[in-house]
Amino acid sequence: MAVLFVVALYVVVRPHRDAAPAGAGNSSAAVSGQAADPSETAGDAHALRRICDRRGPGFAGAPVYRGAGPHPTVVLDPSTVAWFGGAANARMLRDPAPIEQMRLVGCLTFGGPASPAPLATCQYREGVEMTLYQGRHRLDVYAIDSGRLVKTLVIDGSSHGSCPPATLVRKGTTSTSQNTPPGDAEYTAALDQLINGPAVG
Prior knowledge:
This protein is mainly beta. It is built from two helices and ten strands; from the N terminus they run βαβββββββββα. The strands form three sheets. It has a five-stranded mixed sheet with strand order 3-2-4-7-8, sandwiched between helices. Strands 5-6-10 form a three-stranded mixed sheet, with no helix packed on it. It is elongated and about 55 Å long.
């Protein structure tokens, strides 16, 4: 039987992200009025979050996003590095993402279910039932060197109906739901053209 995590109260605080600009690709920096340091690079994924959170400009010392691919890309969800691709020396998702090679950063915003039809119904201890749906999410892709929004994509979560080994619920909850995040196959399909094709804009 699956494991259940029960907490008396929990609060998830996520950084606010502005709605995608109408003219994607026209802005030269993530936040207008802030100039990028010409030698600054993103040392780690945490530093890149300022682009996702719209808290500062790009990293002008990063590899320039232009010309033919591949354009190494890292995806950040609200809490971690979710995926990366296109880097020459890192093929396995278990490897640390080589941030210094990245030209694009994808910023994932979790959405709702892609369909009202559930993938699975999962039973947990304490009588908790969790309905699993395929998720549908938003992925904003930015050029790291400029902070420019390159493209906004709709990306579906995994279609596999495997129940998670654990779920987090509030105390007293007996019914809950969860939407699947994208997996390797979904990221690869959604980002293939941006990674391997010519630079956009």
